[in-house]
Write a structure and sequence with these properties.
The protein has 126 residues and is an all-alpha fold. The protein folds into 2 domains: 29 residues; 87 residues. The chain is 83% helix and 0% strand. The protein has 5 helices and no strands. Helix 3 runs antiparallel to helix 4. The chain is elongated. The N and C termini lie far apart (72 Å).
């Protein structure tokens, strides 16, 4: 009886692997989604910056940490799409350095405004 049990388990395992393998293969031929349009890219970047700026004004003590997270996205956009996304990323880098150096509030506010303007210009260009 034990031998039959192990054979049955082996058959079940084999069937499970085949089922998994066949479901993976059926997904391989599916068409991929089209790349995002310029408008979609700029809208996503602008929305991320808008949300960051609003949160930074509301909770300035958390802004540097939140900006570090935003920088990951902005770096990816700058590397992938270049152009105005590099300017946006660089404005965010400047802001991050101000936070890290404990710059005066007016300097931080001015750079927040620069970041917001870059995001607005990006979105209005499309």
């Amino acid at each position: 009886m034990k031998k039959n049990n192990s054979v049955f388990r082996g058959q079940l395992l084999c069937m499970a692997v085949l089922l998994l393998f066949s479901s993976v293969l059926t997904g391989c031929g599916a068409p991929s989604s089209p790349p995002p349009t310029e408008t979609q890219k700029s809208d996503v970047a602008k929305k991320s910056v808008d949300e960051f700026v609003a949160a930074a004004k509301k909770k300035p003590k958390e802004a540097a940490q939140n900006l570090t997270i935003l920088m990951e996205s902005l770096d990816a956009y700058a590397n992938e799409y270049e152009g105005p996304y590099i300017e946006l990323r660089d404005a965010a880098k400047e802001l991050l350095s101000l936070y890290q150096s404990s710059a005066a509030k007016d300097k931080i506010d001015a750079q927040l405004e620069v970041l917001q303007q870059k995001a607005n210009a990006l979105a209005s260009a499309n």
